[in-house]
Amino acid sequence: MKKLICLCLALIFAAGCGILSPNENRNNSDLLYGWFEDYISAPVGTFCMYNTADTIPYNMTKRCTARLYTQLLSDGNDGYFYTGNLAASAPVAEDESGTVWNISLRRGYLWQNGEEITADDFIYSMMQLLDPKAANSQASILSSGAYAPIKNAKEYFLGKCTWEDVGFKKIDEYTIQLVTEKKVSSELIMRTFETPYTMLVYKPLYEQYRNENGTSAYGTSLESFMSAGPFFLTDWEPDAKYTFTTNPDYIYADRYSIEGINVSVISNSATATELFLSGKLDYLSITYAEWEMFEDDPRTYEYWGNSLQYMFVNLGNPNQNGLLGNLDFRKALYYGADRVSLAETIGAIPTTRIAKKAVVGNPDTGTAFVEMEGSKDYIDDGYKVYDPVLANEYLSKAFEQCKLTNATMEIYYSETSTHSKPATEILDSQYEEVFGGKLNITLRQVPSSQQFSLRRWNPENPTAFDANIGSITSLNDSPHYTFQYYTSFYSPPRFCYSNPQFDAIYEQATASEDYKEIVSLCQQLEKILLDDMVVVPLYELPSKALFSQRIDLPGDGYINNFGFGYEYAIIAK
Q1: Considering only CA atoms, which of 468, 441, 474, 466 is closest in space to residue 452?
Q2: In the chain, what are the domains?
Q3: Can you list the residues of the chain whose pLDDT is less than 50?
Q4: Spatial CA neighbour of 335 closest among 540, 530, 542
Q5: pTM for this one?
Q6: For the chain, which has fewer Cβ within 10 Å, the N-terminal or C-terminal residue?
Q7: pLDDT digits (tens, 9 = 90+) for 264-288
Q8: Among the residues of 230-291, which ranges form H helices?
Q9: Buried b (16+ CB within 10 A) or exposed e, 216-253
Q10: Can you give the pLDDT at residue 72?
C-alpha cells in the first residue's frame, strides 16, 4: 500500500553493537515539507512522565524528550529496532554476571537551548525519578523485575539507603555505569531506557519549578520544559493546541520529512470527524459508532491496542468456602460464556488467550506474538469453547468440593465504558441461561477510576470484589511484559496467585537475548495461566483510524508497539 519514499542515505551500523550512526550531514531543513494536523481527546497536564501513566502524554513526550535509546523503523518499514539515542552504543556487559553495564554517551547531543547533554544530566534525572520525597509513581520502572531492575532503586525510593548505594554511576562526562539486581539482557536495558518514563529532565528548570514537598512542576507549561529529540515543543496553548517543530539537528534527522506536527485538543468525537472530513485533520480515530460510516473507506486502517478484556475473578476471596478460588468453578465460567455471540453484539473479536494481538513476537518484522510459531498450539481452536453441558459439569464439581448447592457472585462494571456494561449484562444473561438458579449473579456499577484499585489483590481486604470485566495495560514490545503481573514477586500484587514454575520460566524470559527463546518461554507462561485459569479471557476490541489522502505513511499500516509512524510520513505537495 503506502510506502515511504526513502532518502538516498546509507544506514551505517556501529561495529559490533548494532547501533545506527547518526547522519553526518544532519541539517535537512531544506528537505522538510508540510505540517501534520493531529488531535488528542484531552489536554496534556505535563510533559514529565515521572508521575503519570496516561497514554496521551506518553505518546506526546516521545517526540520531544531525551532518552538513552529510541525505536526506529526497520529497513522494510514493517518492524522496528532499538538503537542509541543519547547513548552512542548498546550497553556493554562488564562481566559474565550480566548485572554490570557500561553505556557510552554521544558527544554533541543538545538540549533545545543548545546546551550539551552529559552523564551528569542522566544521573540527576534518575535521582529525581527515584526521589523519595517526590514519590513518583513511575519510579517502579527502575525496580520492576519486568524491566532492568537497578540495584537498590527500590530501597532508595523507600528511604532505606543513600544515593551512593544505587546502581547508577558516572564514569566520566560521556560514560555511565548501571548495576542491576539480576541478570538482564542488553535489549532489556535498551527497552527500559527508551520509554518516556526514564526521560531526562533539564536541571535548571526542574529546580526552578520544584515545590516544597519535593515534587516539581517541570513540564507543566512551555516555560517549565526543555525539549530534546526529533521534535521541539515550540508552542503550547493551554487546553487547546500543541506545536512540535522538527529538529533539523537531530541525530536521525534524515529520517524525517515533515516540518512539524500541530496537535489540537478535540474532546468531542463528532467534532473530530467533521474536521477530518473537511480536510482540517490528517488523522481520525474512529469510534465504534462510526465504524459502519467508514466501512468501505479506503483510508481506513485497523489495528490492535490495549483492549483484551478478561473476567478478573478474585481467587483469594474466602467467601462461600473459597468458591472463586476453585479451578473447576472458573472453568465453569470459562465454558459457560458464549464469546462469539457476546463479541458480535459489541463489535469485538472473541478470544481465549491471555496475550493481546498487539504484543510483538519479532520486532524486526512486526510479527505479533499470537502469530509466532507455536502460539496457537495450546489455544482452543476457533473460540468455539461455549459448552453448557461441560460448564455445568465443572460447576457441580466445584460445588461438591466447596460443599455448596448454589452460589452467588457479584460482577461490577463501568457505566462510562462503551462496552463494559453491555458485555457484563450479556454475560449475566448467558450464565443465567446456562446455570439457571444454581448461580445467582448481581451486577454493580463502579466508576472506572475506582475499578483498578478495587480489583488489585489486597490480603488485608480479601473480599473487596468477586469479579470484574476489564483489561491489563502493559507494554507490547515483548511478550514477557504481559505475564509480569502474575509472578509471585510482582509488587504490589495484582492477583492472589503463586506458581514457582511460572516464576522460574518468567525469570528465564527476562534474561534472554534471543527473541525466539523469549517467545517459546512466554508460550509456556501463557499455557500455565490458561491451565490455572487465573483470568477468564473473553473478547478483544480492535481500533480503527483514517489518514487523509495527502499523507504517505512509511508502511502498510499499524506496526505493533510502534504505531503508524506518521512522524516519518511524507506530505504530498
Answers
A1: 468
A2: 29-267+548-571 (3.40.190.10), 306-542 (3.10.105.10)
A3: 1-18, 21-27
A4: 530
A5: 0.82
A6: C
A7: 999 999 999 999 999 999 999 998 7
A8: 269-277
A9: bbbbbebebbbbbbbbbbeebeeeeebbbbbbbebbbb
A10: 94
